[in-house]
Please model this.
Amino acid sequence: MRVLRMLSTQGVNTMHNIYNIISDIDILNNETKRMNCPECGGYKTFTISNNMGRLLWNCYKASCSISGSKPVHLSVEDIKRTLHKEEKKAEHFVMPEYVVPYKGQPDITRFMERFDLMGGLHHDVKDNRAVFPIVHDGITVDAIGRSLRNSLPKWKRYGNSGLPFTSGCGKVAVVVEDCVSAVVVGSDVYVGVAVLGTSLSDIHKRYLSQFSAAIVALDPDALPKATEMCKDLRSVVDTVKVLRLTDDLKYKHPNDIEKLTAIGEEINGTSINT
Model:
């Protein structure tokens, strides 16, 4: 258990000093501490809380106006504690009998050629979907199917793991909406992480917390959502950037690839090969 450092109330008269004191406090996630106010000296009127990646502080004395907040990094242990569950070893997922490996089926072939995909897909012969196996730690834990004939839903999850589809083995996560974009960006530099939407679940954040840097690259019509996701992701990832796309990343627009390369180099001197 980490110990809260003692706060001195002497000589602290500015918000700058308050901020420095708050920055020096070590407090667990979902923990609240109460103490004497370092600004007005009020007895036990000052509280500090760590609320899922954000420190919040406030003095409840009417004559004192001190309050504020700042983001802090959550460890994997913090996230586990918040969710009240331990990380479970991934369980092997068995494909439904109507989902079969790709063996030259024409619809799958056309889909792969359209996006320049190399392979690894399955075919849902019942709903006619291109199926992307979700593999974590070398184990197939789930699968996601994409409609090939515009039937709804466009994307279908076959299991209940909640884990994102990923592609690549790099050190920088690129968060995208769909599996095709994840495959396009996945490389030895980036890990494409498809969340199938414009928001992050707790499972997504738990997975992404292993990265020290991430790029949010949602579709162009979801820029406001990308900005929100960026703020949310900063609670578990140290460096997060938003990539403003010209087109969906799966279409590999030259401007988008150039901007992605520039952000990658800004983060750690990396680039993408397409």
